User: What shape does this take?
Amino acid sequence: MATSVKNNSLPPSLISNLNQVLLSRQQHTIDHQSTNSSSLPSHSRNVDEPGCSKPLLLITNCEGIDSPGLIFLVQALLSDARFTLHVCAPQSDKSVAGHSLTVRETVAVCSVEMSGATGFEVSGTPVDCVSLALSGALFSWSKPVLVISGINRGSSYGRNMFYSGAVAAAREALICGVPSLCLSFNWKKDVSSESDLKNAADLCLPLISAAVRDIERGKFPESCFLNIEIPSSPLANKGFKLTRQSLWRSPLSWKAVSANRHPAAGQYLSNQQSLGIKLAQLSRDASAAGAARRLNSHRKNVEIESVGIAGKFNGQQTVKKYFRLELLEKETEKADDNLDFKAVEDGYVAVTPLSLSSTDQSKIETEVSSWISAALGKEKWN
Assistant: This one.
């Protein structure tokens, strides 16, 4: 570094001394930074490096990155101070997205401030979140130790697993070769509260810690992921119980609604990231609508409000109706105590191993039962 003395009112000798001091300080700073960089542990330099000393966990869910269940889980894991956390979750509720991927459309990703964790919200589905995170396109690491989907509010047991975006996220992790857990809380309307979700997060910590420990030891079951259902009273739980997937399902109720109650367009626009995307979507819809009008110009279109069963129409008339799907609550039935929904209703934490194939299910159940018994102790295992 050189400082010009031209047009400077200070004496040349003082300028020379100042230059020497600045050069000396600059060299000292470089040496100090170099020494610190080589002496710090790898996770202090870059948490994305493969040599990170703390196990790295990927957290996702189906209800959105701002949901209380995810926030309480992240807080509980950070307070444990044994893990490095990356969060990649949907920006909005995708609870019944199933195992759907977003194709032929752009997925927007935005960083989110999460104290102590690296967070991103994704405009796509839970499966998009896991697939993107594990692809290496978003994070520089190749694979986390464990993927956790949760804590999701509402049960994902029985046949609900086929609809559940939460379960699908954990399944996608297994497809990508990463061990995973899906954590769901059996939320009861007008009974449960957010404090129950916090208690559920604390309840899951020993299981998560045991899973990470045994994954690193090569002792965790590799052929399945675990769907864990937490009872509605976490503090009063009776322990962990190995269960089988039941045939239980939330009753589906399709209801006809009037056109002005149809929320799809407003919800779609509110979820867009920018005005440009909104305008592009409006333009595309307008073009498609115009093309449809030209194509069907010879038809007589009839739009009716769906408030009942439509009558029959003659000719080439087109009838447009609107419906809303609601998932109803269903009373539990008498069933085998080892089925997932029955165990949860009885106050147990139900642990259901799910594989990518229906073969060797009994072998998988035996393997998972042995692992949990050893990992958590027999007093917590039923």
